[in-house]
Amino acid sequence: MRFISVRDLRGKSAEVWRDLVNEREMVVTSNGRPIAILAAVDESNLEAALRAFRRARAADAVATLQRASVARGGDDLTPEAVEAEVAAVRGKRRR
């Protein structure tokens, strides 16, 4: 996978778009840190690519929440304790 800087994206955009067809994905960096992913799509795969991207973001969000729960000690809750917590939150929403 090719990494390109924001500066290169701005200054050599025609080259980047041309190369993206063959590269398929590129990572855009700012100050050496990744900030975005460019992915080649066309009309035939746009919707499928968006679904896959959104699924990956959702899976990452769930993993982040799970890690946070483990860090808080929430990984040893019983099913009953989980249900009680859910019921408490739902009760607050109804008010």
Count of DSSP-assigned helices: 4
How confident overall, as mean pLDDT?
Answer: 92
Give the count of structural domains: 2
Low-confidence stretches: none
The total beta strand count reads 3
Strand order in the sheet with the most strands: 1-2-3
The sequence of SSEs as H and E is: EHHEEHH
Which class do the helix and strand fractions yield? alpha+beta
Name the beta content range. Answer: 15-25%
Write the layout of secondary structure elements.
Blueprint: E1 2-5, H1 6-11, H2 13-23, E2 25-30, E3 33-39, H3 46-71, H4 79-94
Parallel strand pairs: 1-2
Antiparallel strand pairs: 2-3
Tag the structure with descriptive keywords.
single chain; 95 residues; alpha+beta; YefM-like fold; 3-stranded mixed β-sheet; 3 strands; 18% strand
What does this structure look like?
With 95 residues, the chain is α+β, with helices and mostly antiparallel strands. It has 2 domains: 1-40, YefM-like fold (3-Layer(aba) Sandwich), CATH 3.40.1620; 42-95. Helices cover 62% and strands 18% of the residues. A 3-stranded mixed β-sheet has the order 1-2-3. A hairpin with a 2-residue loop joins strand 2 and strand 3. The protein starts with a strand and ends with a helix.
